[in-house]
Design brief:
Length: 440
């Protein structure tokens, strides 16, 4: 081989060796990057929390309860204390306990379709049995057709011929008709006009004659709600039942201060009672007038309905028995008579008698089931994350093995190039010596 050819061969081997070294550097950098990715996955795996199976004991509580013979109580909380009363009683617990009891309460609601009808009742006269008077020794003399009292003084009794008044009189006294020969007479009782019926076909003498009074009723408004009559309620009125009066009192207690039914409204005859769907409700005159006065039927373009339609909602009230939880807190003496670690008796400060305690373990099954569901969710999530990390790690390891194999190939190639370069270098050395050695 000539010097020029050897030199060219050496340069080509050098360039190829340089490329091999460059590719080896790139492979090392790629393996370093893969190592960083593997380290990041490792750190991610170390940061994962392994789910823990929930223990049912964490959702099980020991509940104490007792009874006073009327109510059943459940202790919801107790704290250790050191409280001593002046009488020497030492309380070791501050307990909070609750009981479910029935209470009578007023309820406010609305009638969305009240159908209020307002009816005006004109002034009229009725027979009032509460207006009474007695004429002692009443005497009627047929010859003179005069009435006198026990003192012989004239008594002004006037015959009544008005059929309407007679009919009211009969109704007030539970009579179907007047007895034979009797007529109805009026009399000034001093407390209104009274009425009685007498047979004046012969001389009579009567004592303790009771006269039914005449009572003037002024014009008033009456209401109906649909087909239900709204009746006014008054305290102490025989026509207002005790049930109604108790219900209204409870409603006043619960809502009077909030602008609902007040005692003043009740006393002034502004509270009305009506029934709907078998239930009794109470409302006020102002509410009834408001519904009647704000009917929207006139605003309907093609309306043919009455004032009962398109009315605003009516605010009404009712009273009913409701279950309510009453919670109390009090000092107590609790002792463990059995030595089992559980309390057997309780003596509350505000009750004179100690009670036996009933201990019962209760498990929040729903809470435990929810915790188990969360555990299975977290476990699946953990296993999915671990599976993803393992898959990524396997891929990195496969890529690293491929790069490592290629690096070994480059290393073998580099060794071959070095050997060949040494051989070419030796040829070049001999060519130099043989060429330039002539002139030595």
């Amino acid at each position: 081989m000539g010097m020029a050819a050897s030199q060219a061969r050496y340069l080509g081997l050098t360039a190829r060796k340089t490329n091999v070294e460059y590719e080896g550097q790139q492979i090392n950098q790629a393996r370093t990057a893969l190592g960083n990715q593997s380290a990041a996955l490792w750190n991610q795996m170390l940061g994962l929390s392994v789910p823990t199976v929930p223990s049912i004991t964490d959702y099980t509580t020991l509940t104490y309860s007792f009874s006073d013979g009327i109510n059943n109580y459940t202790i919801t909380d107790m704290q250790s204390v050191d409280q001593k009363d002046p009488d020497g009683t030492e309380y070791n617990k501050l307990v909070t306990y609750k009981t479910l009891t029935t209470v009578y309460k007023g309820i406010e609601s609305t009638n969305s379709n009240p159908q209020v009808q307002k009816v005006t009742v004109p002034a009229h006269t009725v027979i009032d049995p509460d207006i009474q008077a007695t004429i002692e020794g009443l005497t009627y003399t047929l010859a003179t057709e005069e009435f006198t009292d026990g003192n012989g003084d004239p008594v002004a009794l006037a015959e009544i011929t008005d059929a309407d008044v007679i009919a009211k009189y009969l109704e007030a006294n539970g009579l179907d008709a007047l007895p034979a020969g009797c007529k109805v007479y009026s009399y000034d009782t001093g407390n209104g006009i009274g009425y009685t019926h007498l047979n004046t076909s012969a001389d009579i003498q009567a004592t303790d004659t009771v006269f039914n009074g005449l009572k003037d009723i002024p014009e008033a408004n009456s209401y109906k709600l649909g087909n239900s009559e709204a009746k006014v309620c008054l305290p102490g009125d025989p026509n207002t039942s005790l049930v109604d009066q108790e219900a209204i009192k409870q409603i006043i207690y619960d809502f009077g201060k909030a602008g609902g039914i007040t005692q003043e409204m009740f006393e002034n005859g502004e509270v009305y009672r009506y029934e709907k769907n078998g239930n009794v409700y109470y409302t006020t005159k102002a509410e009834l007038d408001d519904c009647w006065g704000k009917s929207k039927h006139e605003e309907q373009e093609y309306a043919i309905s009455s004032n009962m339609d398109f009315q605003p909602s009516l605010v009404h009230y009712y009273a009913t028995n409701m279950d309510e939880t009453i919670t109390s807190t009090d000092y107590a003496v609790m002792d463990d008579a059995s030595g089992s670690g559980r309390y057997a008796n309780i003596k509350l400060k505000n009750m004179s008698t100690p009670f036996n305690l009933k201990a019962e373990e209760t498990t929040n099954q729903k809470g435990y089931d929810d915790a188990m569901n969360q555990y299975y969710y977290d476990l699946n999530k953990y296993e999915k994350q671990m599976s993803d990390i393992n898959a990524k790690t396997s891929l990195i390891q496969e890529q690293d093995r491929t790069l490592e194999l290629r690096l070994k190939q480059l290393e073998t190639e580099q060794k071959a190039l070095v050997t060949e370069m040494d051989a070419v270098k030796g040829v070049l050395q001999k060519n130099v010596e043989s060429t330039f050695g002539t002139f030595k």
